[in-house]
Each structure stands twice: as C-alpha cells, then as structure tokens.
Specification:
This protein has about 200 residues and is of the alpha+beta class. It has 5 helices and 9 strands; from the N terminus they run ββββββββααβααα. The strands form 2 sheets. A 5-stranded antiparallel beta sheet has the order 1-7-2-5-8, covered by helices on one side.
Length: about 200
C-alpha cells in the first residue's frame, strides 16, 4: 500500500514525486496507520507529542524532540495516544552511500538540527526543488551520522508470547502511572505468578 499525500490535488502518492527531497510539515498530523512503504527515505522529527513506529519485529518509541530515519522500501505503520502530534517530515530519494542510512535510527535532535528543520520549513510542500534547497537538505543528510547517538531503550521488542501483547499495549498507554503486577495480571487474564514467569 502506498502512502498518500492528501495535499496533492490529484491524490498522487509519495512515489510519484520527482524532486530529490520533499519537505512535509503538519501541525495536526494524521499519519497513515496501515502498514505501507514508499521509495523515499523518511526523516521524521517529533516536535510535539510522541509517536510509535511499528517496523518488523520492533516498535520504535519516538518522543518529543527526537527524530527517526526510516530506509526506503521499509514496511512500517504508526500509532500514538498523544492528544496532539506535530511532525516535521522530509522525504529523500537518495542518501549518501553509507551503512548508517540503511538502518532505522532514532536519536535526540540536537539544537543545530532543530534549527535546520525550522529553516527547511520555507520549502514546505513545494514540489519544485531549487539549488539552495538541494544543497541545504543534502548538508543536513551528511550531518545526521554526527548527530546520531545510540538510544536502544527506544526500541521495544514485540513479545514472543502473544498473551503479552495486551500487557505491553496497556503499559504503553499507561506508562506515566504506577502500574501494579496485579493490574497487569488482570489485563493478561492470568495469575500474577504466570505473568512474571512468562515476562
């Protein structure tokens, strides 16, 4: 399934873009919740709220002021319980030939990257790419590996035992509260001891 860009009058998809890069910023984001892929690499900055990216056997938690880089042709979907989500998305057709860009990356956005994203807003939803835009966005790309910091705690492995799916979902939605093992056992419809053993 291709990811649709609603702003296009002809309802064309991301893959129909001809520009090397496309800037797409939204104040009230409604991302495609169904699994989808596109030919563009996707750099997403979460300016407000938080977003879960479901990719293969992992769920990447991307909180406010963090970015995620998703390689092209990567099947993914998103979810969020945040009341408001403001995202800044930049799509890239080609990236430098380095292993860094071939894997999903999640990391905190340093101040300089935030300023670069803010400046990139001048090209929001423009399909024609000029010389400055090309040079600026490519410089941003080249800088990403230097901004990157390992954040393994933002990757949530999907449980091998299906009975834990409801438990993990409950934790994700209520992580800001104190949750007892007894509550989680009720969610899993099993005894506390069994839950602890399986977990």
């Amino acid at each position: 399934m291709k990811h649709q860009i609603e702003e296009f009058k002809d309802r064309s998809s991301v893959d129909d873009l001809v520009a090397d890069a496309y800037v797409w910023f939204e104040d009230n984001w409604h991302h495609e919740k169904l699994p989808h892929t596109h030919k563009y690499y996707q750099l997403t900055y979460v300016e407000e709220g938080y977003q879960y990216f479901h990719i293969a056997d992992k769920i990447y938690f991307v909180p406010q002021n963090h970015v995620i880089l998703i390689p092209c042709d990567t099947l993914h979907r998103t979810t969020s319980d945040s009341k408001a989500v403001i995202l800044k998305v930049i799509l890239f057709k080609t990236l430098p030939d380095k292993i860094f860009y071939q894997q999903t990356r999640v990391f905190s956005a340093p101040s300089v990257l935030k300023e670069m994203l803010l400046y990139a807003g001048k090209w929001n939803k423009l399909t024609d790419q000029d010389e400055e835009q090309s040079a600026f966005l490519y410089a941003m790309l080249l800088s990403l590996p230097y901004f990157y910091q390992e954040n393994n705690f933002l990757e949530i492995p999907i449980p091998r035992d299906a009975r834990l799916n409801a438990v993990c979902g409950y934790i994700n939605q209520n992580y800001r509260y104190n949750i007892s093992t007894d509550q989680l056992a009720d969610v899993a419809t099993m005894s506390e001891r069994n839950l602890q053993r399986i977990f």
